[in-house]
Amino acid sequence: MKEEGLEYRKYVVGAVAFVIVTIYIIRLFTLQLMSDDYKKNADSNAFLKKIDYPSRGIISDRNGELMVYNQPSYDIMVIENEAKDHFDTLELCQTLNITREEFNSRIAAMRDRRKNPGYSRYTQQVFLTQLSDQDFSIFQEKAFRFPGFYVQRRSIRQYGFPYAAHVLGDVAEVSEADIEADDYYQPGDYIGKMGVERSYEKQLRGQKGVQILLRDAHGRIQGSYQNGAFDTKPVPGKNLTLSIDKDLQALGERLLEGKIGSIVAIEPATGEVLCMVSSPSYDPRMMVGRQRSQSHRELGQDPWKPLLNRSIMGQYPPGSTFKTTQGLTFLNEGIITSQTAYPCYRGFIYKGLRVGCHGHGSPLPLVPAISTSCNGYFCWGLYHMINNTSKYGSVQSAINTWRDYMVSMGFGYPLGVDLPGEKRGLIPNAQFYDNAYKNGWNGLTIISIAIGQGEVNATPLQIANLAATIANRGYFITPHVVKEVEGEPLDSIYTTPRYTKVSPQNYDFIVKGMRSAALGGTCKALGGYDFAPCGKTGTAQNKGHDHSVFMGFAPMDSARIAVAVYVENGGWGATFGVPIGGLIMEHFIKGHLSEASERRATEIQHKRINYGTGDR
């Protein structure tokens, strides 16, 4: 029995020993192969990997004016494993011009793995960003007193002019979502947040470099590891040339002072956006440095929404500018000819329905209907198209045909401009109206879309693009605000023509109508210009005062500029839209304003619209 007990204990001891050895082997395997904690510790004792940030690409306007450039900035980095508890925290706070509470909150945020998943006490972590030159100089003098704290040099954006904030956008520290979406970024990095800074982020940001520095047992830098054999140099970001004309942009922003609205100008032959004004705006220089968060918060709380780019995000009724699309559609579908005349007895009056109009000759054909902006003419045209069941079979088929024309002209969907946040507007189809009118509908039910009211909505960019399409007699190139990216071609979408469903010859009648409007019709304020402008007014109905709208281009043949103006609650199209559009065209074509035009620009600049105090 004694031998059996000994034999049993031998097996127990052997099993225990086997388990212990197995545990040690697993632990060693885990430490050496599965975990990098000790590797990080060893590496951090021997090496310091210092990121070399590339200079971000600069941004110029179409004439070479420097609009966005870089200036030096300094971040404070910390390796907690090297930071000694006995350094004077209060002195560090005074040196960096922060409070003790801010110090504590920054350390806590840095250690929070939910917000900073790459945290390790053995590697550099961002402690404080964007020191001023003065604070940097003070810190440099005392840096030896704060072991574990280092300076990381990089650059931040500077904006040369107070213009084009919505086009340029801004740069800010990356969010958690940015880091998760792209492993290029780590906490403390910067990324474009809006405008071309966002849409061309990958071109502008460049590629980071890395310096591997060797340290002794006391953590002192001894120089580059193997003379920099494993270092990589940063690759600067690519420079952008905008299609924007800085001086034209400045004039547009000046003309919309004290008003809510937008001006968009396009070069028809290329689709290049010459100016994109959204008012109210803000000075892009507000969004630089450590005050960016406060500035962004204040702008976001402003009831007039200065952060909103109304040129691509504002969705408005296009008003009578939309009549050009109707005339083109009716011509192409054979609903009318250029000589078809419709009556207008101060409006469209039929079966108890009346859509009012101002006084002019009646009946009248297409060209004078465009020139005088006759509501009756285009209401009759739409009614005869939608109710033409012999041609289309049903009102549903007719409205979908109509919808396809509108979409081909750039409405109903985002055009694809190279800026984030573009809205689509609204072009209704058969399903839309079937859902809205369960008991049936016809041409009279939806008659207001013929004059750009009712369910139709468009962005100012889409209206400007319509002017460019008419100037080109039937095609457009997707509008874009970047003219050139250093070292690479533009996306083909910004060089390829997009043709509408309308035959080119039908555009000639619309052009004649718009030229007639400038010579003596609703745009007669353009008649004094010698560069053959063409125009179309719009007075878009609104719950309050009507919106003032204008769309035009110049010269009549071989147009160099197409423009749309939208002034909220500005009244008649001729009140603000036409004179502002004329000044924009004159400045671009002539290179400057005449003395008389400069006086007119000053008058418009100082005209204010009372919008009340309601939240917009």
Can I get a quick summary?
This protein has 616 residues and is α+β, with helices and mostly antiparallel strands. It has 22 helices and 20 strands.
Describe the model:
Strand 11 and strand 12 form a beta hairpin. The protein has 616 residues and is of the alpha+beta class. Helix content is 37%, strand content 19%. The longest helix is centred in the N-terminal third of the chain and has 33 residues, at 2-34. The protein is built from 22 helices and 20 strands. Helix 10 runs antiparallel to helix 21 (577-590) and helix 14 crosses helix 20 (504-520). The strands form six sheets. Strands 2, 3, 4, 5, 10 and 16 form a six-stranded mixed sheet that branches. It has a five-stranded antiparallel sheet with strand order 12-11-20-19-18, sandwiched between helices.
Write the layout of secondary structure elements.
Blueprint: H1 2-34, H2 37-46, E1 47-52, E2 59-60, E3 66-78, H3 89-96, H4 100-111, E4 125-131, H5 133-142, E5 149-159, H6 165-168, E6 171-173, H7 176-181, E7 190-192, H8 195-199, H9 201-205, E8 209-215, E9 221-224, E10 240-242, H10 246-255, E11 261-267, E12 272-279, H11 292-301, H12 310-313, H13 323-332, E13 347-350, E14 353-356, H14 366-372, H15 375-386, H16 389-392, H17 395-408, H18 430-436, H19 460-471, E15 475-477, E16 482-485, E17 497-499, H20 504-520, E18 534-540, E19 547-554, E20 561-567, H21 577-590, H22 595-606
- Mean pLDDT, as a whole number? 90
How many beta-strand elements?
20
DSSP helix fraction: 25-40%
Radius of gyration: 33 Å
> How far is the first residue's CA from the last residue's CA?
96 Å
List unreliable stretches of 5+ residues. none
